[in-house]
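Methods: holo model generation. Sequences were used as deposited, without trimming of termini or removal of tags, and paired with ligand SMILES retrieved from the corresponding compound records. Each pair was processed once, and we did not select among multiple samples. The sequence and pyridoxal-5'-phosphate SMILES for this entry were:
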Amino acid sequence: MSAPVDSQILGHFGPYGGRFVPEALIAALDELTLAHETALNDPAFQKELADLHRTYTGRPSIITEAKRFAEHAGGARILLKREDLNHTGSHKINNVLGQALLTKRMGKKRIIAETGAGQHGVAAATAAALMGLECVVYMGEEDTKRQSLNVARMKLLGAEVVPVTQGSKTLKDAINEAMRDWVTNVETTHYLLGTVAGPHPFPTMVRDFHRIIGVEAREQCLDLVGRLPDAVLACVGGGSNAIGIFHPFIEDKNVRLIGLEAGGRGIESGLHAATITGGTPGVLHGTRSYVLQDENGQTLESHSISAGLDYPGVGPEHAYLHDIGRAEYRAITDDEAMYAFSLLSKTEGIIPAIETAHALAGAMQVGNELGSDAVLLINLSGRGDKDVQTAAAYFGIPL
Amino acid sequence: MSTPLDDLFVKTRKENRAALIGFLPAGFPTQSGSISVLTAMVHGGCDAIEIGFPYSDPVMDGPIIQAASDQSLKQGTGAKEVFATVRAIAALAPTVVMTYWNPIERYGVKKFLDSMKENGGSGAVTPDLTIEESSQWIEETKKLDSNRIFVVAPSTSDERLKKVAEASTGFIYAASLMGVTGTRASVSTGAQTLVDRIRRVTDKPVAVGLGVSTPEQAHEVARYADGVIVGSAFIRLLQESKSEEEGINKVKDLAIALAQGMKRS
Ligand SMILES: Cc1ncc(COP(=O)(O)O)c(C=O)c1O
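and the model returned the structure below.
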């Protein structure tokens, strides 16, 4: 692997991260890096974003203690950080509002976004509507069929949805197509990437916009139980909700950070999206990280019951946290996730997103390992309304 | 030590003409077919050949090359087939591989360059390798005298142009426009401006690619560039032909027509 020239400037996390992109994008990435760094230190920007979060997103999001669910998790105390209660129903809004504000600051009037399940697309279309930006969302043709409700939602919000027919017609190809649009229209357009992957500055910038989850939750946990949690758990697709809640705890060495990847039908089956658990280091979509790939470096198709985790890459900071042993990553199968999905719905009256259900299944495992003295903080990254069809089909509920 | 590609530009500069560089993904339309097509390109007048390493996520490529790469990948093209193609074509003309970075990293940087050398290839074009990420690449290509061809774009700052030009050998690939590969109705006026800007920082050869498809366009570019790169136009002919034979004949005819425009006078 190439040694980083200057890890600060280039967004390296150990050997991971960096920029593997056409030269045409470098000027825009530099502009974005500067805009992000300036905004971080600009009280006016921070106030504008904080006001939006208070009056529009609905922050701070609350903590709910899941006492009945905890009986199935070794009796450990289970604290749910309720990102599902945010406007648009998931953590995704934290990032899109931040990036949309930056777009305006850079004087650009058009945003493009990729989406798999449609959650990020809906969030991006929402931010665009709020701020008067033109919005085009690239979505794999397969996904537009599977998630037709979210396609309609984006259209109602005034966005254009472009079905992507190339390659495997899923999220990874939607990202390719968004990058091609960006290379062509970079002067007028901001690529509002939806997770902590992609070339620098995206992994750092998107993390910074989601850190608020962990910052709030750390305080809330101290208030509620008088100490830090034993473990913080989150599902990992690209890794944005996970890094958002992990990051403020990284220096708290006694707090375990546990990411739950989509194990699909099981790692052995080859049908999964557990990039760190089952992948190898490589380059995809502009960054070096773990990748699901074959011996020729071709990206493999991922599989998961959860569209939001169905991605063959993962954010580079997770790859680094894994390699240095600061965070652990486990794979949760479709069946384990759906069991936890049903359990949370029936014990707490909260229907989680299927993505989030992977984190809940992880909490059941870890709770049983650590026992009733443990305190577990779980990022409830999204609500399950979007998944009713998938869940009904899975559980055999006629619609 | 110079590579066959280096020698080519010494020669074409003496002859006061540009070099015609033809592009095709390895394994397209088939493994044996790709060798026949590339051979026809050389026989028609291509001075050098760029062989694409088909990749699952080609973000720099438009629909024509994407479709060709997909077809090739479905037939199982990998490093072995790419280097077999290099071996066959390097015997006829200076040959480079154009590849996204991940296939090189996966194969192993040193091993990739060893295979390149063994099969007579001059080097590689790396469209998504930024100079910031290329320290190992630069080190290993130096050891093996392999050409490092980086791509620059109209948006590249003068300061970066200088750095990229310094890091490049063989030629500097000037992307004619902000966009992806494909055929275009005209060559962007930005191309000449970019080449002029590169000339101010280096005397290394500069080749222009992206959107050059007709003999008229190629001739126009040949006036100011050392090399003219044509890919999608050849591939489209193959995609539109009813038989491989028909496609190969059309490719050769296009190469002949393009080659005529390489002279500057
Ligand atoms: C509710 C929810 N959680 C998690 C994810 C996965 O993304 P990430 O790993 O970036 O948080 C998604 C993506 O669509 C989502 O909708």
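The radius of gyration of chain A is 19 Å.
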